[in-house]
């Protein structure tokens, strides 16, 4: 079977600009009637691209309006690489590997196109474009009219003159590109809509391509059978930072966002057809939700915890779950330090009195944190960093953790929670959200604390019995409290909030803002987005919380087969037998298992029959199978 010859338009296809409009910005920068002339140029471009005016006539009129000089053309040439379309940048390797069967065909200008063509690995004679003519003073006087591309129906004429072997595939956004197929010079025409969509062009096309990935997928070029990225739908809930949206869209994926959390019923409806779900702390992804998800490949928790996701159910479905365990650490630590100081100095109550017109200047009950003992319950990323900063403030640090942890600085590990509670002037919670941690601090624990001690909870609402805390505050057993998390929290900012702690003196309540700084939210967005891209683009499960962790390099000159299966004997042997029966040559293979799941990554030569992969999906124990080019 002969591989197709690809012919690409340039403006609004390989680059996101229209060359003449970009040149107008340069040439007409200081012209008093610049706006009027630019509008006329844009209108002529649109008329030509939609077939309402002949290309040659439109080109002549636009050049007359421009008054171009050589320096204007050179300025655009210098920056043209920065204007490359996103999906073209993503697929540079396709052009470089298939350069001998790829042409650029444009009514634009050769010297503008040349730098990008060179970057894509195309030979100069594979650039078919107009040549500008200059006078002795460097003014553009027109184009070479002997070139068919300077006039109506020039593109079909140029293609026929090439005498190409094999099916010819035309990819472009304008009417002159559609004419290539309509005049019989191409076998297939893709209307390229990543930059602009023109209805008349779309109607004349064999297919619509929102990105180059769509074209490669449809044509099966060099075995490119990965699902086009723009067809992969991502749903991000709860105001995920725009940095994540930007990064994921830049990578070619389709992203939809929603401001608030969704309850189970609403999420079941919304998740249909979704490949990737992004949440924060208020959306619960239950087994029932996962059962309803017909396309879901991954869940990203844009926060620290993942207790809002049924991790076992996700593993059973082959759905990878990622979080951002360290990205907001500093923000939570700084809030904890600030709350300690504010509570020690009774700032919150004094501020409230001042707003009521009461002046109460007194040192009674106002203390420094220096020399006090801080008891940290949970010595993970946040607890340990808090330990360092608190010690630098002159505090003595104790910590308690179920896991063996390395003490930082002069911090001392306590063998029991009760021992820590008895010594600490300030107790702060930094445990994870697992169910086993429900109400680990209750009436008995408050009774064991030093009278007048301060208490902070910036971890999870359910780890503390808030009724017992309220009683301890009312009785004076606690000298103050700062709480950022609650057992029941509103799903959106518009919903009401209530708690037994509302209205109590010496009590600071904040709406789960421990990690809500601009820096933390951006860092979380970038980290979680990169973890998603690593998994989707190369199968990397680093930092995945429910599947075996495998760190993988990019796929190069191979196809990658990803096989997630139940951890049972014989799966790898059966997998390799199926690969051998299909005649696939294995270039590299990784296997990682946990007590529940196995994950096999196999890189194979690119030349194979896609039907040969059917057997891999039917192996006993298979949960999910994917292929990447």
How is this structure best summarized?
The chain has 629 residues and is an alpha/beta fold.
Radius of gyration: 32 Å
- Strand order of the main beta sheet, please? 16-15-14-17-18-19-20
Structural class: alpha/beta
Low-confidence stretches: none
Number of helices: 24
Largest sheet: 7 strands, parallel
**Shape label:** elongated
The helical percent reads 25-40%
Q: Report the end-to-end length measured between terminal Cα atoms.
A: 20 Å
Share in β-strands: 15-25%
Q: List how many beta strands DSSP finds.
A: 24
Describe the structure.
- The protein is of the alpha/beta class and 629 residues long.
- Helices cover 35% and strands 18% of the residues.
- A 7-stranded parallel beta sheet has the order 16-15-14-17-18-19-20, sandwiched between helices. Strands 3-2-1-6-7-8 form a 6-stranded parallel beta sheet.
- α21 links the parallel β18 (453-457) and β19 (478-483).
- It is elongated and about 95 Å long.
- The mean pLDDT is 93.
Keywords, separated by commas or semicolons:
629 residues, 24 strands, alpha/beta
Structural topology:
Blueprint lengths: L4 E4 L10 H9 L6 H16 L5 H12 L3 H10 L6 H5 L1 H6 L4 E8 H10 L7 E4 L1 E3 L5 E4 L10 H9 L5 E5 L2 H8 L5 E5 L6 H6 L2 E3 L2 H8 L13 E4 L5 H9 L3 E4 L6 H7 L5 E4 L7 H6 L5 E4 L9 H6 L3 E3 L6 H16 L2 H9 L17 E5 L3 H12 L3 E5 L11 E2 L3 H7 L2 E4 L13 H6 L4 E5 L8 H10 L2 E6 L23 E3 L8 H21 L20 E8 L4 H11 L4 E8 L3 E8 L9 H4 L4 E7 L1
Parallel strand pairs: 1-2, 1-6, 2-3, 6-7, 7-8, 9-10, 9-11, 11-12, 12-13, 14-15, 14-17, 15-16, 17-18, 18-19, 19-20
Antiparallel strand pairs: 4-5, 21-23, 21-24, 22-23
Helix pairs in contact: 1-2, 1-4, 2-3, 4-7, 8-9, 12-22, 16-18
């Amino acid at each position: 079977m002969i591989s197709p010859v690809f012919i690409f338009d340039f403006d609004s296809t390989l680059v996101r600009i229209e060359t003449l409009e970009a040149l107008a910005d340069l040439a007409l920068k200081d012209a008093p009637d610049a706006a009027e002339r630019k509008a006329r140029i844009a209108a002529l471009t649109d008329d030509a691209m939609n077939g309402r005016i002949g290309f040659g006539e439109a080109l002549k009129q636009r050049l007359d309006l421009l008054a171009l000089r050589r320096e204007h053309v050179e300025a655009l040439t210098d920056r043209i690489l920065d204007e490359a379309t996103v999906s073209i940048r993503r697929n540079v390797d396709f052009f470089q590997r298939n350069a001998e069967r790829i042409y650029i065909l444009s009514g634009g200008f050769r010297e503008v196109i040349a730098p990008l063509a060179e970057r894509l690995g195309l030979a100069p004679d594979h650039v078919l474009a107009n040549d500008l003519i200059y006078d002795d003073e460097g003014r553009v006087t027109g184009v070479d009219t002997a070139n068919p591309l300077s006039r109506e129906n020039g593109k079909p004429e140029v293609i026929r003159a090439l005498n190409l072997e094999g099916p010819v595939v035309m990819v472009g956004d304008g009417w002159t590109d559609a004419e290539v197929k309509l005049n019989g010079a191409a076998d297939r025409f893709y209307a390229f809509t990543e930059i602009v969509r023109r209805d008349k062009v779309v109607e004349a096309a064999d297919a619509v391509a929102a990105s180059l990935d769509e074209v490669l997928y449809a044509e099966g070029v060099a075995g490119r059978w990965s699902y086009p990225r723009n067809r992969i739908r991502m749903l991000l809930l709860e105001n995920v930072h725009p940095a994540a949206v930007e990064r994921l869209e830049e990578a070619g994926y389709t992203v939809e966002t929603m401001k608030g959390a969704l309850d189970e019923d609403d999420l079941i409806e919304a998740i249909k057809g979704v490949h990737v779900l992004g949440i924060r702390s208020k959306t619960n992804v239950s087994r029932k939700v996962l059962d309803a998800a017909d396309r879901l490949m991954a869940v990203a928790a844009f926060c620290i915890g993942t207790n809002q996701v049924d991790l076992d159910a996700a593993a059973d479905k082959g759905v990878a779950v990622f979080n951002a365990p360290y990205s907001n650490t500093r923000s939570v630590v700084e809030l904890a330090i600030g709350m300690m100081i504010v509570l020690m100095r009774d700032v919150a109550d004094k501020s409230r009195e001042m707003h009521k017109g009461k002046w109460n200047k007194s040192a009674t009950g106002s203390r420094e944190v220096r020399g006090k003992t801080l008891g940290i319950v949970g010595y993970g990323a946040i607890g340990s960093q808090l330990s360092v900063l608190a010690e630098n403030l002159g505090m003595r640090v104790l910590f308690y953790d179920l896991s063996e942890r390395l003490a930082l600085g002069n911090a001392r590990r306590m063998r029991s929670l009760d021992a820590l509670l008895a010594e600490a002037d300030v107790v702060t919670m930094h445990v994870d959200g697992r169910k086993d941690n429900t109400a680990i601090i209750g009436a008995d624990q408050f009774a064991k604390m030093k009278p007048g001690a301060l208490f902070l909870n910036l971890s999870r609402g359910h780890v503390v019995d808030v009724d017992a805390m309220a009683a301890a505050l009312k009785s004076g057993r606690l000298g103050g409290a700062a709480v950022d998390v609650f057992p029941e929290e509103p799903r959106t900012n518009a919903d009401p909030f209530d708690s037994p702690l509302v209205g109590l003196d010496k009590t600071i309540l904040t709406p789960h803002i421990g990690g809500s700084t601009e820096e933390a939210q951006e860092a979380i967005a970038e980290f979680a987005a990169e973890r998603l891209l690593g998994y989707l683009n190369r199968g990397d499960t680093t930092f995945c919380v429910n599947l075996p962790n495998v760190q993988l390099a990019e796929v190069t000159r191979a196809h990658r087969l990803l096989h997630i299966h139940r951890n049972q004997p014989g799966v790898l042997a059966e997998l390799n037998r199926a690969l051998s029966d299909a005649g696939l040559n294995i270039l590299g293979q990784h296997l990682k298992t946990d007590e529940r799941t196995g994950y096999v990554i196999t890189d194979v030569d690119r030349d194979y029959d896609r039907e040969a992969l059917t057997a891999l999906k039917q192996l006993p124990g298979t949960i999910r199978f994917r292929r990447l080019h």
